[in-house]
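Problem statement: downstream parser choked on a complex file, so we are re-checking the raw output for the FE2/S2 (inorganic) cluster run. The parser issue turned out to be on our end (a line-ending mismatch), but while we're here, posting the original submission so the record is complete.
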Amino acid sequence: MTTGYRPEWVQGAFVDFIGSRLHPFWSLKIPKLRFLARHQLSDDLIALQFETNYAFRQQAPDWQGGQYLNLSVLIDGTYHQRSYSLVGLPQQPLWWQNEIVNNKTNKNNQRHTVTIAIKPQGLVSDYLTKRMSLGTVINSSLPSGAFTLTQTPSVKLASALIKQESTVPLAFKKSTPLLFIAGGSGITPMLGLITQALKYGHQVTLLHYSRAVLLQNEWQQLAAIYPAFTYHLINTTDSNTYLVGTRYLSGHSLLALDLPLADTQIFACGSPALLAGLYNAATEISLPQNKQLRDNIIVEDFGNASSDFTSDQIHDKTAKQEAQTIYLRARQQQFSSDTTLLIAAEKAGIRLTHGCRQGICQLCRCRKISGVVKNIQTGKLSSDGNEFIQTCINIAMTDVVLDV
Ligand code: FES
């Protein structure tokens, strides 16, 4: 009979336990980061550089541009978890490279560091950017998140081809044009994504809406190496930098980029206002063959690199819900839901209209005829009656009838 006893596992866990008591950074299994340095990127954006431990390096020797780390930070006796985008790619030289090379103490760490960038705007980000002492060790997830180039079919193909051949095939150089749109600190995941995209041979355009120039040297270096890279900084306080005379993102600004929009994949990261503006702009543009530009948009999972709210949290928050019956009156279909109405419908094989899936674009808005739902972003309960709701951010607290 199998007892489940695994001597090698017990031994490993025991060694890990003893090791972590001897030194908090040491672990064979738990990814940890040791805080090395802060770098001011702008008045309100601070980069933090960490050394990775053995467990991190073994389990994540590589990561994709656009991925993030979920950090577990102990503040005043309580653990808090937050997600922050990684800046750049493994081994990619960043702007403080010279400082590190000149500093013998840090020289050995140069190959094993990760960098995140944070806007101080809450308990955890304030602690990380202002109070955390150098040398502090924190637990981290491995790099995760789906805001990566692997969402672009041509890149999947490219990765496969590059593994097989040492040179990039000619055909691949004609692959999908990519448009990256960032607002303020939403620029942080873009450096890794864009560097990868350019290496794969894509035509890349970056639109950055910001009051400060961020990562300027990096963009200039990439533009010098890759003629297929175009960078527009729209400084919201300088009208000389505006696209088509406006500081706002609009259908006209997208058209002014002169890209084949029907075939362009758009990656966006920024404030809810910027993302809502993008979805509005997309509706102003007509594409051939009934294509919708909104279908080409991929947004960062949690809207902003330093958001407190991730899709994992959505899952956690809804995991313990009791299943309720959702009836779609116009379609005469019903399904059972213990998560957001949108996800539950999809699990049941029913496609509902949606866009961002984060409560921003309003494309999933529909009329509820009856039943109580709860907004998982605000925690607010609806009335029992007739009103509009967004299916991507509401869960059913009772049986619900939708006018869909
Ligand atoms: S899908 Fe965008 S608000 Fe729901």
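For whoever reads this later: The longest helix spans residues 7-22.
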